[in-house]
Design goal:
The complex is a heterodimer of chains A (369) and B (562). In chain A, helix 3 packs across helix 4 and helix 4 crosses helix 5. In chain A, a hairpin with a 2-residue loop joins strand 9 and strand 10. In chain A, the strands form four sheets. Chain A has a six-stranded mixed sheet, sandwiched between helices. In chain A, strands 13-17-14-15-16 form a five-stranded antiparallel sheet, with no helix packed on it. Chain A folds into two domains: 222 residues, Rossmann fold; 127 residues, Beta Barrel (OB fold (Dihydrolipoamide Acetyltransferase, E2P)). Chain A contains eleven helices and 19 strands. Chain A is elongated, with a radius of gyration of 25 Å. Chain A is 28% helix and 31% strand. Chain B is mainly α and 562 residues long. Chain B is 77% helix and 0% strand. Classes of the chains: A alpha+beta (369), B mainly alpha (562). The interface between A and B is medium-sized, with 34 and 31 residues.
Amino acid sequence: MYVELKNINKSFGDFQASKDVNFGIEKGRLVALLGPSGSGKTTILRMIAGLENPTSGDIMIDGKRVNDLSPSQRGIGFVFQSYALFRYMNVYDNVAFGLQIQKKSKQEIKERVDELLELTNLKGLEDRFPNQLSGGQRQRVAFARALAPRPSLLLLDEPFAAIDAKVRKELRSWLREMIYKVGITSIFVTHDQDEAVEVADQIIVTNHGQIEQIGTPLEIYKTPQTPFVSQFIGQGTVIEDYYDLKGFEKGNYKGAIIRPEFVEAFKSDNDRFADVVGISQKGTITDILFRGNSLEVRLDVGGVQLTTHRSLERRPIKVGEVMNVIIYRVLAYDDSRAYLLENEELKKKDVNNIHLESYLYSEEGYFVV
Amino acid sequence: MNKKIIPGYHLTLGITIAMLSVLILIPLASVLVYSFKIGPAQFFKVVSDGAVVAAFITSIICSFIAAVINTVFGVILAWVLVRYEFPGKRILDGLIELPFALPTAVAGITLSKMYSTTGELGAPLSKWGIYVSYTHLGLIVALIFIGIPFVVRAIQPVLEKFNPAYEEAAYILGAGPKETFFKVILPELVPALLTGFGLAFARGIGEYGSVIYIAGNSAKEHTQVVSYIIMQKLNYLDYSSATAIALVMLVISFLLLLFINIVQVYQSRRTSGVYEVSSQTTGDALPKPGIGRRVMIAISTIFVFLMLVMPLLSIIRNSLSKGFGFYINSLSTNYVRSAFAVTIMATVITLIVNTFFGLVASWVMTRFDFKGKQVLATLIDIPFSISPVIAGLSFIMMFGRLGWAYPIMEWINDTFGTDIQIVFALPGVVLATIFVTFPFVSREIIPVLNSVGTDEEEAAALMGAKGLTIFRKVTLPHIKWALIYGMILCSARALGEFGAVNALSKTRGVTFTLPLEIDALYLAGDSDSIVAAFSASSILVIIAVVVLVLRNIFEYREKAVR
C-alpha cells in the first residue's frame, strides 16, 4: 500500500470529523473520496496533506509514518478547491513558486516550468495573471503548480467545483488522462457521484466521518454494502412495504431502495415480455417527465410509488395509462447492511441466470439477450 | 447595467452633485478663482518665499516620516488584531479609532503638554537629551497620532478576508512563515498599504489642530507647517498669500487622492473574479505562531499605550490637577457655556445635512454605474485629504469681503432687509463643520452596500416596489449599523472641528466652539487657564470615549449579523 490510514480519528472541539478511518491505496491509483458535504472527506484529504493533525492514528506514505512531517516533506502536491492561485504572480511565477522555495537554479526552474506548461497546454500564457484566465485554465495552472516540485502523491480538493457545468465534463476526462500520463498516485475529493464514477478507478465512500465502502466504481454501483451507500449512489427511491410487490417476500429488513433501472413497465401487448406477463402486476402512470434522452415515468403499483426510465424510441405512453410492471430486484437494508434481493418469480424462470448476466453487462435492460 | 431597474438614479445623482457643488466644490473653486487673480509673478514670489518653502518641506518630510512609521506599526497592529486572540483585544481594537474621535485641538494641547520638559513623557526624555515638544520630533509624534487609524483600518479588512488557502498553498509548496508573509501575504496587502499610507500622508500634510501646539511654530527652527502659515496669513488679512499657498496644497492633496484611487482601481482589476472566499479556517497542522506572537502583541500594546492611552490619561490628570471644584468652575464660565451651545448647534445641523448626503450619495455610488463615477468618488473624498484651514479659507474667499458671493449676500440683505452674515458668524461655523465632515457618513455606508450587492433591491424593484419602500424595507436593514456608526463618527468630528472653524470664527463668547475656547484658554498661558483648557477638553474626551465604546458595540453587532 502506498498510502495507508490506520485508525484515524479527528475532532474539532465537540465535532468528530473522522471516526476510526482505515484504508489503503495502491501506488498509481486514482482514488475518489466521495460523500455528501460534512461527511469528513475533505478532512481526510487535509490530514494526508499535513494541513490538519489527526487526533489519533497513523498516516503512512510509502511505508513511512508521516504524522510529524510537514507537507513539503511528505512529497505531496495539493490542488485547492478554488485553486488559491497567487493573484499577484503570473502563471510562470505561480508554477515556479515551489521550485524557487527549494532554491533550485534558474535554469532548472525554467526547464521544469516549461515542461509543465507544455504538458498542461498553457504555453504562451506565462505572463498572464490568474484573473486573465478562464476557470479551466486556472485549474490547469493549479495542477501544474502542484506537480512542479515532483510530488509522488497528488491531492485534489473538489477539483471541479469552481468550473461551469458545461466545461466540467471535458475537464474530467482531461484530468483523468493527465494523471495517467504523469503516472502519479492521486486522491480527489468530490460530492458528485457521476464525477467519482467517471474519473476514479477506486472510490471511497464517506459518511458521518466514517468509511462506508471501498471499491471500484462498478462494485460501488452494483453492490452497495450499506444502507447509506445504497441510497447515496443512483437515483433510488426508498420504499418500506417492498413486500407488497410481486416476487418479493417480507424479510428481516427495514425497507428497500428501488432504482429506476430495477423497474420495467410495458404495455400488455408487448411481445418481448410475453413470457413474463404472467408474473407482472398492474401499475397506473401518475406522471411523466421529459429527461432529454429518456422519460422519467412515475407509477402507482398497488399503492407503492415507483419510478422508471423509458426510452424515447418505445411506444408513446400517457398519464393514467395502466402498465404491466415487473421489478427485477430491490436493495433491501437493515440497520447496518444492504442486500440485493432478486425477484423470486423471475429467478424461477431464469434458472441459468442468463437474463441476470445480460442485465449486468448491458444498458438495454433485463430482456435483451 | 445599462437598464436601471433600481429607481432613483437621476434624483440621487442630482442631489449628490448639487450638494457636493454647493458645499464643497464651489467654495473650493473660490480659492482657485482668487488665486488666479493674483498673477503668476506674485504667485511665485509668495510660494518661493523662504518661510513658505521651509514650511512645505517641513510638512511633507514630517508627514512622510510619520506615514512610514505608521505603515510599519499599522501592519503589525492590523496583523495582531486580525490574527491573534488575546485578552483586551477588543479594547485595543477600539482605541485605534481614538484619533478619529478625539478633537485635534485636544490632541494637540495634550501631546504638547505631555512631551514638554515638565510633561509625563517629556521630563524623562529630556534627561536623555531628547526634546520632543517644539521640535520636528514633536511634529512627527503628533502626525503619527492622527495617522495611525488610517493605515490600520485600511489593512484590517483585507487581512480579515484573506483566504487561508493561499497560506496553505505556500506552506505545502515548502515556504516557511517568513517566505509566506513576504511573498504571498504582503503582495496582497500592498494596495491597502499604499491607500493607508496615502491617506495618512495627505492628512498629515494638511494637519493643523494637533500639530500647532507641539510644533512650536518657529520660523528659525523650521517647525512651521503649511497650515500654520496659511492661518498666519489669514490673521494678517493677507488673502492673496493665503490662497496662493493653499493652491499648492490643493494640488498636492489632489495628486495624493488621485494616486490612492489609481491604486484602488489597479487592485480591483487584478483581483476581480479570482477571489473565491472560502469559509474554511486554516488547518491546525500549520506552524503555530510562537515567540513572534507574543512580541507582536507586546509591540502593539506598547505602541497603543504610549501613543493613544497616555494622552487620554494625561488630559484627565491635567484637568483635575487643581481640584474638582476648580474643574466644575472652569466648565461653568459664560464663555464655555456659549461655546458649548454653538458647538451643539453646529453639530446637529451638520449631522442632519451630512447624514442626508451620506444616504443619497452611497445609493448613487453603489447602485448605479455611470461615467465619471471614479471622479465623483474622488471629489466626495476631498475633505479627507485637504487641510481644514483651506476649508475655512474657501468660505472666506467665497462669502468674505473679497469673495465673489459677497455682493450677492449684500443684495439679498438689502432686498429683504435681513442681516445675514456668513463669514465670522454662526453660518460660517456651520458651513465649515459640514465641509470637514462631509464624507463621513457615506464612507461608512458605501463599503457595506457594495458587499451586500444589488440582488435584493432588484428583486424588490421587479416586484413593483417604489424607491422609498425599497430603501426602507430592503436597504436600510443592511446599513443600519454602518449608518449609526457613520453618524456617531460624524458628530464626534463635528464637535471637535478646529482648523476650519478657527479661520471663520473670531468672536469669543459668540461664535467660538468648544475647541476654539480650549485654544483660547490654552494660549492664555497662565496655569489656571491651561488647567481650564484641559477641563473643557475633558468634555470632548468623554464624548470621544463614548463614541469609541458605541462604535465597538455596533461593529461587533454587525459582525454577529453577518
